[in-house]
Amino acid sequence: MQPEPGPSSPCSRASLPNGVCHCLGQRLQGTMGCEPAEGDDTPVTELVDGEVGAPSQPDRPHIARKQDSLRKNRPAFPWFGLDIGGTLVKLAYFEPKDITAEEEEEEVESLRSIRHYLTSNVAYGSTGVRDVHLEMRDLCLSGRLGTLHCIRFPTADMPRFLAMGRDKRFSSLHTALCATGGGAYKFEQDFRQMADLKLRKLDELDCLIRGLLYIESVGFNGAAECYYFADASDPECCHKEPCNLSDPYPLLLVNIGSGVSILAVYSPDNYKRVTGTSLGGGTFLGLCCLLTGCDSFEEALRLAEHGDSTRVDKLVRDIYGGDYDRFGLPGSTVASSFGHMMCKERRSEIRPEDLARATLITITNNIGSIARMCALNETGCGTSSRMRQGSSPLLREPPDGGWGWMVVAACFVLMVCTRAVTRCEAR
Amino acid sequence: MKQTVRRSKMAAPGAQVSPDEPGDAENGRGGSGGYFDHSLRLPSGEIFRNLANAKRFAIDIGGSLTKLAYYATVQHKVARVHSSKHSKAECLYEISEQQEESTRLHFVRFENAFVEACLDFVKGHLGGPDAPTLIKATGGGAHKYKELIEKKLGLRVDKEDELECLIKGCNFLLRNIPHEAFSYCKRSTPRFRFQNTHPDIFPYLLVSVGSGVSVIKVESEESYERIGGSSIGGGTFWGLGALLTHTKNFDDLLALAAAGQHTPVDMLVRDIYGGNYGVGGLSGGIIASSFGKGATAQDGFEAEDMAKSLLHMISNNVGQLASLYAKLHSLHTVYFGGFFIREHPATMHSISFGINYWSKGEVQALFLRHEGYLGAIGAFLKGAKEDEPDQYSWGENYAGSSGLMSTSPELFPVARSRSGTFDMLEMDRLARLVPLPLLRDPQDYVPDSHDLAQDLPACHYWLSCFADSLPGVARRAVASQSQSPDAARRGELFRKKFGEKLQILRQQPCAFGSLTVRSLLDTREHCQNEFHFPDPYCKVKQQENEAALRCYQAVVRGLDSLSWRERQLGLVRGLLAGNVFDWGAKAVTDVLESDPEFGFEEAKQQLQERPWLVDDYDVWLKRLQGSPHHCALIFVDNSGADIVLGVLPFVRELLSHGTEVILAANSGPALNDVTSGELSILTARVAEMDPRICSALSNDQLVVVQSGSSSPCLDLSRLDEALVTEVENRKVDLLLIEGMGRAVHTNLRATFLCDILKVAVLKNAWLAQRLGGQLYSVVFKYEPS
């Protein structure tokens, strides 16, 4: 079972909320409760982004009116969003914190049981995890105040999840579950047959963008959701900086799941999938498992923290004895990922940590390189791409060990040099 | 984890390799870097040929393969004709065989395991005074092997930059070797599509996939830039592959990959979606995550499957990066090189798929037949500036080159058992060759009428046809040198050599570029030259020329007695009848060998009656009634009746109208085609009998020029510079191409800026039938400009 990155590292912090984005996106688009019966064409009510607390809002009466109308139209609890990816299932669950005694009284048993089960645990079974550090508190959604919980479990455990849904009589809540990700299609039948649940399927890229924009707009418990690494090429000074997405377009969104999708986003409704690569998180995890015998994402990352990729990769200086001046490549540039592993002695001496580290760097550098090329291709040589600092991306020094810059504006991985991710993660 | 590792049977039969030694470091195969297994046997006379005359050396040592280049003079026999001293003697001219020196570039590719042995071999065969003192070296291994080379060869090692050599080599090949570049499509027949050689090769993107990947934008010979790269390359395939499958060497990994399936290892779109991802436009079979099932595989994977997945991952990624760079720099031509590709079909397919998928068909992936030699060629050129290699044209010597995929054991058991793991390329220095300025569409000119690899019945027919005629050809070659004691032995070697080439072509029709009748004829000529049969038909040609000269005056008198109108048809019929005498056509040689009395008049009887298969005679006649042409260029064909009784009377008529005539004949012998040397003597002899020819020769109205070719066919994009100068100076407005080889096998569909006559008699029943006619059908194609 390989859940998503653990809570401890900035790196995993950077990539995990992707999934949350998905869930949120589809939550905002669809509804969780009271899906009309089949064949009924009643339009589905949508959750509406609310203001967190909003104490400084001067227009109180307006808000009151708005919340009034929300109350009438908002869907019934529970509010769920499900993103079923290739490797992980991400579940966003909105726990209302403003439940009145009256409401609690009315709450049906199954609903209460679900709420208590989800909120009183941080682990579910052997593989389900609630990422407490990611929960968003004091969130106002469709007029309700509450906490958004982020829960994940391996896609391989879908059957168990479905069994739980059946046992907890989820279907009695007359809920059409909003779901996105490939699994929304793949498991649609299973949901229906095993748990008597109907899925409301939403496109994952639509959800991704909506989720990103939503979290960005409400902020993450008062902090900026997006960040980048400043001074990325200097291990001593490298640090996280908040990043403002108030005027984000055009935006290159690199979604690193099992595979990678790269989207050029021109406005909330106008985007295209520019390209993708099959060398993604699934490749990192899969290769690490095969190479080191580890069996979880956390373990793979922990190994990578303590590894030395130069024992695995062949650098320019390993070939040229130093810099390759003729074409301006510094000696520390990786010339061939896993290049040293062509040699039998080196293979026999290598440690799992080194292999994990090299795998991480190989994959992230490659994503960075492709993303940078896409940014250049899509937005006219990168001038309006989401580069921080520096004028022209072409003139910038490649970060140590990287072949090029990562010009990325992903939901949480912003404008970072890929090496910096791993470095900060290793600190 | 279950890891099945199949040992493939790839040990080279001709060159045995010891099992993996500890310390096999960077070697492709299991052999050791500094250790040599003495069981290496070099087939004598086939590898490292001509070393005694080697002048310059260059070496490119990669991660697994070494490429040695040397420049050598080649002694070979040529037949020369001299005008007979006594003009009334029976002999029209004397033939003598002379030693002549030409220049050849040799390239040999072998595994690093054999470096030491090969250097020893080279040292042992180096020649005397001309032997070099310096060797140019490039490639990642140049550093590592520097001392060894200096010690073994006693040459100073001068290192050259790898990428520069690569680019120089690439430019050289693209300019000089026809059909060097090809696209690869797994689902088409043939899988290889060769590109025309264009004089204008820039700009292009060169993606070198060695241990890592370098992407270079080349805009001219001098101007190029490394615009990017990737660390995920051949080294990653090899290193990761070795870790995952415990298979140590590169070729074995490729063999594993060829036997594997990637679907158990990769997470496909349908593994996530259960089918296609319709909204995103991704079909279910697309790989969503390489090795994406690695985390959930309970029992691990088969080694083959992991190797396949790895190959896909890396080649797709290379293809994607290349298409992104091509798009960013608005380039549509992308050449791939480097050891990762190594002519491996699955790799080429995967890269082509990647490029096509990501560029939506806008960028085409091109590969090079000799990509393995780019670095060695470049290093050689760097050291050979004073020989001015750029001032010449070069041609691939088919007899001494291994051809595409020569080291693939599945494809070439024959070649492999002969030469082991050695692959060779030889290029002959030619005169500077330039395109005919009269071509209407020089960029799209393809000499050959037929790509046999696209036409299986035709391919089968012609390969059998050449194989069937081989014993007779060999016999005639031996007979032409009856005084030579070793002629029979050489004849046998020729028969074997060409037989092997045919065998290779049967298995891999694209081994030497597009397979055409021309390439087959040229290969045969090259093989004959290889064994010192420079001109097997010299005596036949001599006899035929003499016999024809004796009839010349009677033929001319006969024509002169006709009315103008009758004479024009008579001249054309004479041209056609002469063209029947072709020793390249089996139907004709059978007749000529069995009936010594078969002559010009008999040939006329064989001709198809009008209307001919292609009959533009009436249009031609009408044109003749108009103002005469200013200058005619005639590419002539056979000796004897063809040139003397067919072409010369036709020329005589043109001259009498005031038209200037350039007679273009082969520079060197091919079959019974008349060479420019022979033609000069023949025209001089005719001039003695014919005042009109005599005055035309003396006042320069008639000239004989060599074409630059030694082929029975004709590539109008590669002609002798002097001929092209004549064409330009004299303002040629009529072109006549004569004979099956020049006007049917090649140039049948070529279009020109001047009036063009294509005249041939179909002396091959199969071809005639293909064209809708029968044996001795006539093609008389006239196209006004």
TrEMBL record, chain A:
Task performed by this protein: Catalyzes the phosphorylation of pantothenate to generate 4'-phosphopantothenate in the first and rate-determining step of coenzyme A (CoA) synthesis.
Pathways per UniProt: Cofactor biosynthesis; coenzyme A biosynthesis; CoA from (R)-pantothenate: step 1/5
Protein name per UniProt: Pantothenate kinase 3
Alphabetical list of Gene3D superfamilies matching this protein: 3.30.420.40, 3.30.420.510
Enzyme Commission (EC) number: 2.7.1.33
GO cellular component: cytosol; nucleus
Keywords noted in UniProt: ATP-binding, Coenzyme A biosynthesis, Cytoplasm, Kinase, Membrane, Nucleotide-binding, Transferase, Transmembrane, Transmembrane helix
GO molecular function: ATP binding; pantothenate kinase activity
Gene Ontology BP term (one): coenzyme A biosynthetic process
Main location class: cytoplasm
Major enzyme class: transferase
TrEMBL record, chain B:
Pfam family for this entry, one: ARMT1-like_dom
UniProt region (Disordered), positions on chain: 1-35
Reaction(s) the record says it catalyses: (R)-4'-phospho-S-sulfopantetheine + H2O = (R)-S-sulfopantetheine + phosphate
Cofactor needs: Ni(2+); Mn(2+)
All residue ranges annotated as the Damage-control phosphatase ARMT1-like metal-binding domain in the record: 467-776
Top-level lineage group: Eukaryota
Protein's UniProt keywords contain Metal-binding: yes
GO BP: coenzyme A biosynthetic process
Gene Ontology cellular component annotations, sorted alphabetically: cytosol; nucleus
Gene3D superfamilies linked to this entry: 3.30.420.40, 3.30.420.510, AF1104-like, Uncharacterised protein PF01937, DUF89, domain 3
Keywords: ATP-binding, Coenzyme A biosynthesis, Hydrolase, Manganese, Metal-binding, Nickel, Nitration, Nucleotide-binding
Keyword Hydrolase carried by entry: yes
GO molecular function: ATP binding; hydrolase activity; metal ion binding; pantothenate kinase activity
Alphabetized PANTHER family for the sequence: 4'-PHOSPHOPANTETHEINE PHOSPHATASE (PTHR12280:SF20), PANTOTHENATE KINASE (PTHR12280)
Quaternary state and interactors: Homodimer. Interacts with PKM.
Biological role stated in the UniProt entry: Phosphatase which shows a preference for 4'-phosphopantetheine and its oxidatively damaged forms (sulfonate or S-sulfonate), providing strong indirect evidence that the phosphatase activity pre-empts damage in the coenzyme A (CoA) pathway. Hydrolyzing excess 4'-phosphopantetheine could constitute a directed overflow mechanism to prevent its oxidation to the S-sulfonate, sulfonate, or other forms. Hydrolyzing 4'-phosphopantetheine sulfonate or S-sulfonate would forestall their conversion to inactive forms of CoA and acyl carrier protein.
Protein name per its UniProtKB record: 4'-phosphopantetheine phosphatase
Native organism: Eptatretus burgeri
